[in-house]
Structure formats: C-alpha cells, structure tokens
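Continued from yesterday's entry.
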Amino acid sequence: MNILIVDDDPRLRDLLRIALERAGFTTFSAANGTTALIHARREAPDLIVLDVGLPEMDGFEVCRRLRAASEVPILFLTARDEEIDRIVGLELGADDYVTKPFSPRELVARVHAILKRSGRAVTPEMLSRGKITLDLRAQSCRVAGTDIALTATEFDILARLLAEPDRLAARRALIAGIWGPQSRVSDRTFDSHLRNLRRKLAEAGCEGAIETVHGQGMRLGSCA
C-alpha cells in the first residue's frame, strides 16, 4: 500500500519513510503543500501523513483541498498540541492526529488502524531470513520452526535488522527508530535489549544471528 509523507523536515521524512517501509508500505514524499496535492492526484495514495506546519500552504489548507475531491485517509502530524488545532483538523476531515515528538512504532500502529477503519485491506506482512521468520501483524517470531517469545522492543530490533539484512544499522538510528527521534534512551538500555535478544536466538539454535561491526553498527550474521 502507498503512503504519501508530507513534511518540510527532510530528517523527519526519512525517519517516517524508514518506519513505514519496514512495516511493509511503499512511500513517496513531498516537502510542501503544492507538491503534496500534485502527488495525491497523480499517485492516488492509500493514506497521507500530513504535517500541519508546512510553509506557504499549511496542512489544514492541503486537507481542505484534498477533501474537495477525495476521501483518502489523512493522519495529521504536528508540533502543536492545542485542542483547537486538533478540533480544526478533525472537522476538516482528518482521520487521526499525532503530536511531535512521537514514537515511529505508534505512528505505524495509527496508520494500520486508520486503514482498517477505512476498509482498505492491509495484508499480513512476513519477514524471513535463514532460520528466522517474523510475522509483523501477529508480532510473532519463529526460529527454525520453533516459536520464540520476544518482548516488543526485542521484536522491533530484529524486525528492523531483517527488513534490511545486508545493511549496517547504526545504534543511534535504531534507538531513534524504536523510541523516537527525541528519545533519551541510553546505549546501555539498548544494549540490554540487544543482549537478551541475542541470548534468546542463541538458545533457539541461532548463535551469531546479529553481528556488530565496531564503530559502524550491526547487521544480521551468518546464522540468519
């Protein structure tokens, strides 16, 4: 399913792109309202993540123009937390409202919920590599055919590595992707989750599933 991301911050657009694509969506983006309207007409997205605080034409106006011709689901994204802004957005036809800073996992969950409410089918997504298989919808993990109980954070770490198995993932990028770009989660906390995940995979017969490249990041190892 196609998601249009509209935000003038390139770093936030990239964060949203990574989170949504790892959840199985296809994405394209726009940095302003005019481009967003062009993409919406041309690409017919299944959902639009729309920042309110856009330059020149704000998200409210973009939503107003979209609603004149389309019922595409819209998730507003904004740094403003005033009740009047939420009311205006919903009255204009937005389906939900997320305030920055936010958890990428929460945003993906909101996207799934909106699509389900709107009747747009979201097919189950699987990630698989070697002995490891993840069901993203059921949040379940199997190693060599055996179910493995993972915490939500352990599952998220493994899913992000499985989504791009041959790419090095930087520690801070993983932390930002799981807990949000403004998170103050320490490396020690992340390492604790990673250590537990490695132990569970090893106990299931997948020793060395995650390898660390010193000073660069981590990726799936030979077992996976």
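--- second protein ---
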Amino acid sequence: MKTKILTLVAVCLLAADVSAIELSLSQCREMALQTDELLKVSRNKVVQAGLDRSIARTAYLPKLDGSVSALYMTPNSTMGDAMELQMRGVYMAGLSLVQPVYTGSKITTANKLARLGEEAAREQLDAAAMDVIAEAEKSYWMYVAVLSKIDMLNAYLTQLDSILSHTRSAYELGLTTQLNVSRVETRMAELSYRLRQAKSGGELCRLSLCRIIGADENEPIIPTETLDNELPAEKTFAGIDSRPELHLSMLNITAKKHDVKMVLSDFLPTLGVQLGWNAFGNMKMKSFVALEDGSLYPYTQSVSYKGLVGALSLSVPIFHWGEGVHKVKKAKVEVENASLEHERNKKLMELQARQAFSNCADGYELISSAQKAFSEAEQNLQLMKSQYEAGLMTLTDCLEAQSQWQTAYSNLIEAKTQFRINEIEYLRSVGLIRAK
C-alpha cells in the first residue's frame, strides 16, 4: 500500500512540476515543536520564571544606592535679626548601603515561591509540548488515512473499469443487456464523485498538516509512514504520575502554603542595617560682628559636611485590629481549596486516562476484526469476479462483492487510523508523550 501511495503522489508531483516534503512521523513532531507559536510563548515563560528567581535571590544581598542633588534658593533665609542663610548652589551627595537582617521569612518565602514558579513554567512547557506533538501526530495519521482511502478508491475504479470492459464485450456479443452496462457506468460515475471528495478532503488534511509543521501551504507532502506499519505491543496502564497537569496541581498547593507564610511575614518584626556616606557644601551663613569702636563688620561662614552614617532599623507591628489574623485565615482557606481542587482534578485525570487506555485496548480487537473481514471480502471478490467473467455469476452479485470489499477496506483503514489516534490520546492522558 505504501508503494501505491507514494507512486500516486509522485505522479501528481511530476505533473505539477513541484518539489515535495518527504515527512516521517518523527520529523513531523520536530517541525511542529519548532514552529508552534504557543510553544514559543511557553519557552519564553520558562525564561521569565528563571529571571524572576534570579531577581528574588537578590533580596538576600545588600542594596547600594547613590544620590546627588543641587539646591538654589532665593532670597536668603533670615535667622534672627542679623543672620542670613544663603543656599545658592548648595550640593548634596551620598551613598547608602542597606542590608536586611530579618524580614519575618519574607525573603526566604519569596525565593521558594520563585523556585516553584520556575518549576511550574517547565511543567506548563511540557504540557504544551505534549499538546503540540499530539496534534501533529493526529494530523499526520489523518492525512495518511485519506491517502489510503484515495488509493483504495483508485483500486476500486480499476476493478470497475475491468468489469465495464467485460460487460461491454458481453453486450456486443448479445450476452447481456445495455442496462447492465449502464449500471456499471453509473457505479463508476458515483465512485469518481467519491474519489473527488476524498481528494478534496486530502487537500484539507495537507493544508492542516502544513500549518502545524510550519511548511508552505503550496508544498506537497509525502508521508513516509503508512497504516500498514507494525502496531506497537499492547500496553499496561501506566498511571498518571507523569502527567504535567498533576504536577502543576501539586505545585499550586505548595505555593498556597508559602502564601500563608508570606501573609504572616507582613505582621512580624523586621530588622535592617543601613550604612551611608553623606556630604553637602556651599551653604553659607552671613552675619555681622561688632568691633571695639562699635561698628559692625560683615562676615560669611561656609557650612559643609562629609562623613559616615550608620543606622539600625527595627519595625514591630503592634495593633492592626486583627487584620493579620484574618489574612492568615483567608490564606489557609486558599490552601484547603487548592487541595480539594487537586483531588478533583486527579480523579478526572485518572478517569480520562482509564477511558483512553480502554479505547486503546479495544482498538487492537477492532483492527483484528476489520482485518479478518477485509481478507474474507477480498477472497470473495476474487471468486465473484472470476465467476462473473466466466458467466457463472450475475453482475449484481459481482457489484455487491465489490461494494463489500470497499466497505471492509474502508473499515480497516478507519480502524487502523482510530487506533493510532487512541494511542496518542492514551499517551497524552498519562503524560508519556515527551519531546526528545
């Protein structure tokens, strides 16, 4: 079947004189992971979470700030009857080093929350990557299925064409009626219409696949995988421990517990140490001094300062009308709600995974039944066709055998396709789809 599909697509490509993409399933996954916009956003969020964690770590370190300012004030300020303060061009400069000593565990808790945020961003990235891979694989197998059905309908048309030639020959010899010729021609026209529909559906699947892998919409795609590939061995239920959404839910509970500590820290004492160097100058004091003869002599005195300043700051909340108690209780309720939501989501994920596993297991049996029905229909068709050509069977029986063959073939394609989709959904439901 793979050779027939590739031959059909190759002929179309030669006619269109365009190049094609030979696409394996692994290539489809990789291209989808490289081009998906939402996945790029998730990667950026991991980077942002890492930066948030780096920012949170800086809170442990002392902060050094500098300042420079100039002041021009006019007119001079009067200080008493004979003294003026001149502040024209006064400058001030300083350096301040602040080191937190105790903040009620706020800094430690903030760093733990930042680390949890980074872990959560990575889990969200894994979940997004799983969604992209699942969508890409489903689209890939849907496209393969449509190509398989096109191949089947072409084979059906070839069989009908052979029967039409035989029926026309029999009509020319007077061995059958024009009605039988018309019946075959009508069946062929109906099949041609269905073939055009299948090709239209195949084009839509191709466009969808191009969008997912980031290929140009005009590029033809030749899948290198087929539905005849060996099926994977039957699986045992893996559980949902690897599912990113479960990890995210657990991280949310831990984050809510840290939020309680963060709220509590707002109502605990804080202690900090500050060391600074300050300088100011160009401030002048103007006044008069009395001489021995009783006259007044004006004089000006410059005022400046340079030196170190140290400070120890302790802040203790005393009375806030129970605000802290209420906020802590509220934060603890949030922890309880997160735990309840986690248990609910866990049960839903477990149910979803069990259903997906059941669908996957049923798929094996469905393929086996469809394969058996197709083999019987194929044998019956060969027998009916040879007997019809020998004049031992009616046209109606031969056409019915062909219809049964087409139905069985279509059912087999759908069973194999659905199994592939069920397998992807199961692996996604237990968190076993991972980007390599």
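Helices lie at 2-16, 25-35, 37-57, 106-172, 178-213, 244-265, 323-389, 395-429. The first strand starts at residue 21 and ends at 23. Will compare against the first tomorrow.
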